[in-house]
From TrEMBL:
Belongs to the Orn/Lys/Arg decarboxylase class-II family. This is ornithine decarboxylase. Its EC number is 4.1.1.17. Keywords: Lyase, Pyridoxal phosphate.
Length: 397
């Protein structure tokens, strides 16, 4: 597959009629190295955020050896792509068939649960072995996060005692896990959650071997500039060390977004302009699911130098026939942008590239590797975004 310097070089060479996905392995490598080197414990990549086999190999080569998988398809994918990886099956509601295949065929030993029925199911499906690591998921607040994960999974503190005691009996190694919600904009989210963990441990008086602080580590998007990840790591480490757990207890995390958001951007073409609305060739059923359904704002830039430097705010329509294939933005682009122009949409690596469907006959997208910087980064030590102040890429280099 041909590699390009950047999006501009690509459109000049290919003038693509379909949306194109750009891979930035160097950005994913940098993110993975950051977690491997600086998170004060073990980092499991949450595969659901972006299950691309190429990305899995990039993360593995950068030192990520553990993977949080949430379905049997993800178990099979990672087992096939990275046979030596350690898999942790962290969906709290699994089928007996999935548990049995994961344990007996793929060597999975780590499972999460949040109720007694799931514990019984895991024990039965695995044959009550002596080598299970079982993580009890606690319900915690999502109040500091852009995307809540507080209502579906997690045992209440009031019920945690009995579940922890029962799980301790079945587990070789007992863990407690939680998820503070995705894109947690304050490190305090983890302190609050770990305070609940502390209360649960004290109440149940059990020996805990693993504390898993889950995902939620943020990326940078327009209008969302989180504190540095070092602040999250420092406060997690301090709070972890104050928990009533043994010296040998392990600290884990399960970053999805933070490891892959910068890995992809897409190039779309404007098929029509209607006032301040641009009809583009990717959308709600493609890589822009979050932009359509939860109003997520991604960085955009016009690819070329023939348009005005005056900017205007635009909304997008995707290619399908549905009214809801609409992304309100606002997306700032040159005021005279028109049909046939190309736009790069950045930070699509997490829950973007992975969301494509073939609905309405759309959804194909070729991948190309590019060597330039992602539009924004948590890993360059710079607070400011990487795109130029006028948001327009010059054609002259
Ligand atoms: C159990 C679990 N772990 C980790 C993640 C990754 O979360 P994030 O992408 O916010 O880091 C998720 C996301 O839904 C999850 O459900």
């Amino acid at each position: 597959m041909h590699n390009f310097l950047d999006a501009l070089e690509l459109i000049q060479a290919l003038t693509p009629a379909q949306p194109v996905t750009l891979d930035r392995p160097q950005a994913a490598t940098r993110a993975a190295r950051f977690f491997v080197d600086r998170f004060p414990g073990k980092s499991l990549y949450a595969v659901k955020a972006n299950p691309s086999p190429d990305l899995l190999r990039v993360l593995w080569n950068a030192g990520i050896t553990h993977f949080d998988v949430a379905s049997i398809a993800e178990v099979r994918l990672v087992a096939e792509t990275l046979p030596e990886a350690t898999l942790c099956f962290m969906h709290p509601v699994k089928t007996p068939e999935a548990i049995a295949e994961a344990y007996h065929t793929h060597g999975v030993r780590v499972f999460s649960l949040d109720c007694r029925e799931e514990l019984d199911k895991i024990v039965a499906a695995t044959g009550a072995p002596e080598d299970l690591t079982l993580c009890v998921r606690l319900r915690v607040s999502s109040e500091h996060s852009e995307l809540s994960l507080a209502s579906k999974f997690g045992t209440e503190l009031t019920e945690a005692r009995d579940l922890l005691m029962a799980t301790r009996q079945a587990a070789d190694s007992l863990g407690i896990c939680f998820h503070v919600g995705s894109q947690a904009m304050s490190p305090h989210a983890y302190v609050q959650a770990l305070d609940r963990v502390r209360a649960a441990i004290v109440d149940a008086s059990v020996t805990v071997d693993v504390i898993d602080v889950g995902g939620g580590f943020p990326s940078a998007y327009p209008g969302m500039q989180p504190p540095p990840l070092e602040d999250y790591f420092a406060i997690i480490e301090r709070t972890f060390e104050s928990l009533p757990i043994s010296y040998s207890a392990e600290l884990w995390c399960e970053p999805g977004r933070a490891l892959c958001a910068e890995y992809n951007s897409i190039i779309v073409r404007v098929d029509r302009r209607r006032g301040e609305e641009l009809y583009i060739n990717d959308g709600a059923y493609g890589a822009l699911f979050d932009a359509a359904h939860i109003g997520w704002r991604f960085p955009v830039r016009y690819l070329g130098d023939t348009r005005s430097s005056t900017m205007a705010d635009f909304a997008f329509f995707g290619p399908t026939c549905d009214d809801i294939d609409y992304m309100a933005g606002p997306f700032p682009l040159p005021a005279d942008i028109k049909a046939g122009d190309y736009i790069e949409i950045g930070m699509i690596g997490a829950y973007g590239a992975a969301m494509r469907t073939a609905f309405n006959g759309f959804g194909t997208s070729d991948h190309y590797t590019v060597g330039d910087e992602p539009m924004q980064s948590m890993y360059t030590g710079e607070a400011r975004p990487h795109w130029r102040a006028d948001n327009v890429v010059s054609i002259t280099r």
